Amino acid sequence: MTEDLIAQAKAILRRNDRGGYTVPTHGLYPFQWNWDSCLSALGFSHFDEERAWTEIDTLFANQWPDGMVPHIVFHEEDDGYFPGPEVWRTGRPVPTSGITQPPVAGFAVRRLVERARNPALAETRARALLPKIHAWHAWFHRCRDPQGSGLVAIIHPWESGRDNSIDWDDVFERVPTEGVEPFNRRDIQHANPSHRPTQAQYERYIWLVQHFRRLGWDNSKLHDASPFQVVDPGFNAILIRSCTDLADLAERFGLAEMAEQSRQLASNGIAAMDTLWSDAAGQYLCQDRTTGALIQSPSIAGLLAGFADIPAPRAKAIAKRLAALGEQVDYLVPSHDPSVAAFDSLRYWRGPVWLIVNYMIADGLFRSGESVIAQRIIADSLRLIERSGFAEYYDPHTAEPCGGDQFTWTAAIVIELLSQELTPA
Ligand code: GLC
């Protein structure tokens, strides 16, 4: 069974390989996506280390001069996706979008180095990538935390990787739709419209893109100019974990200054993260940076926070919360609390289970010694695959496979889970 699943997963990675980068899936997402690539590299690393490094190298070859790593790289023309390069107009040599995505590269590169069967290759590739990842982290703190709070904000829901989360609903009311140029969505031609973001949400996504475009994609202006500024605990946890992992790698390779700066960013982040904790919710919550208020919306972001080295009592509370959610669904982890009225078990990030997030939550829980619940998350993830194949995401009650199929990062995480014992670092 295991062998067979690994073989199927490898075939998906190969099929979605466009030479130097993978597409997330045929049709729906025909370009390179940022965090998809970093997580997919983990899958490749078990059977083709060279290819794993190349996946991340290709992404970073498209880093912006200011340090940002864009969320999409449009390597080839394809009119099957909206919004394409003609909407973003970022003026990059290879067209890219103008926003970023969860910075999981530092974590992924550390994993690749630690498990390298070819340490010389790993050292060469990691040494070339480290300064670039460090520049991206510095960009985040400079451009997305201008007040030096220790936590960064996202300025577009797509940056979170959780496009249509319930977390954004109230803040999104502040984003206007006047002046949005007419557009033709392509996603609903590839996937079931009732599983996708709504038209009203799409208009706001595009309004923000047009707004940033008018500001010339100048990252010294975009944060303050955005009506959408949200501090997402899951996103910040990924950044903090990547800073910690980068610090360890920098130490290993004798890069003392990078190690010290990364360590400092991580510890500032951990300290500041506590401002997002809610005793009432029993988890971390997003914060609306414009008003300073916590967003009372119990989503998976506040559980993914455990991917960073948060204090032990917080990790314990998250484990408890997950155990309670586990009584409400058959498959952990739903992307939103099912007891909330807006929960929707089929609509993208408003309820369904995503394997990549499961993987990161479980990894963090193992590090904190919360192995019982971490094991359940992994067991649930594998049951989903056995039952429903390598989908983009799944209904947490029925295991119905949703969105795109033959999905690259889902396949990569299956290889990752089945090829190694997921144990504390
Ligand atoms: C969707 C997801 C995002 C992912 C992308 C490509 O936009 O919300 O997280 O990176 O698809 O798979």
Automatic annotation (TrEMBL):
It holds the Pfam family MGH1-like_GH. Gene3D superfamilies: 1.50.10.10. It comes from the Bacteria. The keyword Hydrolase applies. The keyword Heme does not apply. InterPro entries: 6-hairpin_glycosidase_sf (IPR008928), 6hp_glycosidase-like_sf (IPR012341), Glycoside_hydrolase_63 (IPR004888), MGH1-like_GH (IPR054491). One of its GO terms (biological process) is protein N-linked glycosylation. Residues 29-410 form the Mannosylglycerate hydrolase MGH1-like glycoside hydrolase domain. GO terms for molecular function: Glc3Man9GlcNAc2 oligosaccharide glucosidase activity. Keywords: Glycosidase, Hydrolase. Belongs to the glycosyl hydrolase 63 family. This is Mannosylglycerate hydrolase MGH1-like glycoside hydrolase domain-containing protein.
